[in-house]
Amino acid sequence: MKRFVYVNDDDSSHELYCDNRISNRKYTLLNFLPKNLWEQFSRFMNQYFLLIACLQLWPLITPVNPASTWGPLIFIFAVSATKEAWDDYNRYLSDKKANEKQVWVVRQGSKKLIQAQEIHVGNLVWLRENDEVPCDLVLLGTSEPQGVCYVETAALDGETDLKTRNIPPACMGIDSELLHKIKARYGYRGVMECPLPDKDIRRFDANVRLFPPFLDNDVCPLSIKNTILQSCYLRNTEWACGVAVYTGNETKMGMSRGVAEPKLTAVDAMIDKLTGAIFIFQIVVVIVLGIAGNIWKDTEARKHWYVLYPEEGPWYELLIIPLRFELLCSIMIPISIKVSLDLVKSLYAKFIDWDKQMIDVETGTSANATNTAISEDLGQVEYILTDKTGTLTENKMIFKRCCIAGTFFGNENGDAVKDVELLNAINTGSADAIRFVTVMAICNTVVPIKRNYYSASGTVLYKAQSQDEEALVRAAASLHMVFVNKNSNILEINFNGSLKQYEVLEYLEFTSDRKRMSVVVRDCDKGNIMLLSKGADETILPCASAGHQTKTFSDAVDQYAQMGLRTLCLGWREVNEAEYQDWSFMFKEANSTLVDREWRVAEVCQRLEHDLDILGVAAIEDRLQDGVPETIETLRKAGINFWMLTGDKQNTAIQIALSCNFVSPEPKGQLLLVNGKTEDEVCRNLERVLLTMRITKAEPKDVAFVIDGWALEIALKHYRKAFTELAILSRTAICCRVTPSQKAQLVELLKSCDYRTLAIGDGGNDVRMIQQADIGVGISGREGLQAARAADYSIGKFKFLKRLILVHGRYSYNRTAFLSQYSFYKSLLICFIQIFFSFVSGVSGTSLFNSVSLMAYNVFYTSVPVLVSVVDKDLSEKTVMQHPQILYYCQAGRLLNPTTFAGWFGRALFHAIVVFAITIHSYAFEKSGLEEVSMVALSGCVWLQAFVVTLETNSFTILQHVAIWGNLVVFYIINWIVSAVPQSGMYTIMHRLCRQPAYWNTMFLIVAAGMGPVLALKYFRYTYKSSKINILQQAERVGGPILSLGNIEPQPRSLLDSDLAPLSISHAKNARNSVFEPLLSDSPNALRRSFGPDFFHSHSPYSRNKDM
Fold first, then answer.
1. Tens digits of per-residue pLDDT, 663-705?
2. How far apart are CA 269 and CA 80, in angstroms?
3. pTM for this structure?
4. β-strands 383-386, 641-645: how paired?
5. Residues marked as catalytic
6. Which of 424, 814, 1087, 1097 fits a 20 to 30 Å CA distance from 357?
7. CB distance 967 to 946 below 8 Å
8. How far apart are CA 1075 and CA 1088, in angstroms?
9. How many whole angstroms separate alpha carbon 651 and alpha carbon 708?
10. How far, in Å, CA of 255 to CA of 200, rounded?
């Protein structure tokens, strides 16, 4: 499918295509209420609470005033709706500002100023310097005679460097006066054949045909290089003119907008399971009490004259008591838990934003939490998958060494540009050296900065999309081959004071599949045509001419890779005119197709990139960032496994991994290689490595496997089962020469094994990996902000990852675990008291508490103290950073699981018994009225809540004391005021109770009886069965050092066959633990995972299986 765009057409496009009005709004005034309610009630929990609220409208069954449920429900819905409305209003304001921006268009032969929303497809839009592009345009003209303009795409893809955009060849020579006369369908006209709108910002495969007097009815191909997209800015160019091809929400930027799929954290998943368990328990309780109530009604109730049950009731009489108990027990599931969790999670994100210790001093970049809902998952990370360049390294490329025609330069002083022999070779006219440096200077997409070729120091300033290219061009300049100007397709090179010009005929662009780029140029002095190429050794050396010796260059690549340097091979050849003309025709034809253009272009490129003369190898240094080795070592002690995913050569990646502490050097560490170009080779290597892993899993060795992109593709396609076991057995992996799609596949593989993954990168090629992972972290680096914008969290340097996980992740998990379980505890406590009261009220479903008390209990009396737990710290930040091993408690889910929840459940049951028994004994049985009994029980609950929160708080601040004890004071103030209102139903109750010594004695007795056993149990566990965290807490209090924490006992997590069903893996239960268990005594023993000894068989273990 495609669309036809008529240049400067104001008529037909109005009906066919949308205007340029941008709308990111989710709602309108008319649909806000129904749409928002539909979204909120699409959640099961909200449907459940709505059903309960509706049942309470039935007077016959409701035990309390419906306001006790409708009030909190409406409040929670109102909060969510208000937040949605505010966000949507801000989107409306942003849209309004963009839509009403003034832009110039050409209409009826002159420029007119209109609003951006009035632009239509086909309009001729006129931009001035520093203007924002209002829609997607195809360039027709610029102020530069070479037909180029410069755009800033940071708002689109996060890349900060300027990019060049060119007008199509068919439009070369059109001046501004002629542009005003272009008109569709009559006079001067043109038509463009474009694909339907899509969100791919790196591809635009289209054609343009301009009729006389511009071009004689010929088709000219268009690519993304001929477009400037919405939200870009025109820079360093006086003016540019283009045709609107996509407008409004159909622009590439508009198509890319959308709400990302929400990520479910492990804590959220556990809360959902616990909620389901409580719901089942609630149904059982309702059924049992409903049956008991009906039995009591039919037997005992009719014996009492004051129980006015009718002799014959309606047909639904048997449902009344069960429904009463359903309403009574509905508070088992706290209605406010979602709002509370959302609130504290937003605060967790703010803590990350406000953390001054995570500000990069060099750039001033602070940490930023884009996703506010997954902070607790940071504390449960098991695998970190990281890019190398720009993530572990600085991405500041420096040309260090080279090998030209078999001669090595830079080995003496470690800097090739200062090597006297190389300088002499260039100055004396060595053909190989001059060609090598020429390729460095010309074979690139670097652009000298417009209007300011020279800085104050006299050196040329460059803008490059690739740091490698900039390093090569700068090195060539230092070697007297200075790239000084780019004038359209003419490159000007200053070589030893003489100016040389080269005409660029074609660019053969770099892609992740080709792994090389080439440029076809014509020497303007000699007239000969040359092909200059550079790229990875695996793609350049096979293109060498027959008989050309490449062993020296292969050895050079290996030698430089052993030093941790990035390598590029350079080659060239002359192309005769006839060959170029034939190839150029095919290249133009491939560029004109709208279907599979990229594949066809790559195929045509291969027809020219052959018989190369290999000139040499360039080696570029990319230094490690500060703190990377220490960060990785600390996080490995925390039990986190590391995988490096890089496009670099294997030896380079290995050296970087060794220097980063990814793996220990021999003999403590061992690297196992998985290479191969065929299925059989990969199969044999996988079998060998897996056998070695099994043998060494009990040995004190740090074992890692290394695999390249080719072998990885085969392994994932044909031997996925074997590779999955390899991934589980190994703590460390180094994956080289991998593509962006393979990075995402590896993340998905680990997620399928139920591991919590974190992916971190800094470039656009890391976006897929970052978005695929449970947690995505982007580094705001030299490659731009694309990864940072796509990520859940962005940081300035890799070293801040340590603090992000150990401090923010751990604290967030601990606080969320407490808050969620406490929310259930306080709801279960009041519900159990209601259930106990039913046994002394004829199992009738009568409520002990009035509606106002129930509503205030959930909203005011118990919510405020626990919300301040967001500032609680069980250990100081310094201790956490010094002892990263304690992260295991979070990874293994030690603080939130069915066992810990059962403890809170039991505590709620015990406290309910204490409160009910003491209250009934002290105030019931003709001693007081029901209202007084209710208030005493409620007071006992509030007092217990205060002491429970106090007991569970680790670090007290003034805010926490005010919240806990101030809330208790507020409880009495509120009830004192309510007791003064005659119509409240609680008239004078609190006044009378507070004057009675028996009331305060009862409160003391409730607290003592309820908290005494809890304190005793806590003291016993703290003294005789203390955890490693307790040891550290005690050390902090006494100020003593911790010499050794000993081992943390692992808690295996069963792995059922169904967990890995998509991989078709057979294995034994309990085969692996949830995380690698760190050894706190620094013992080298490692707990490894396997699928059991039956995995290998006597026959070939990894026979090819197409179904895997």
1. 877 667 788 889 888 889 999 999 999 888 887 766 656 788 9
2. 21
3. 0.77
4. parallel
5. 387
6. 814
7. yes
8. 9
9. 11
10. 9
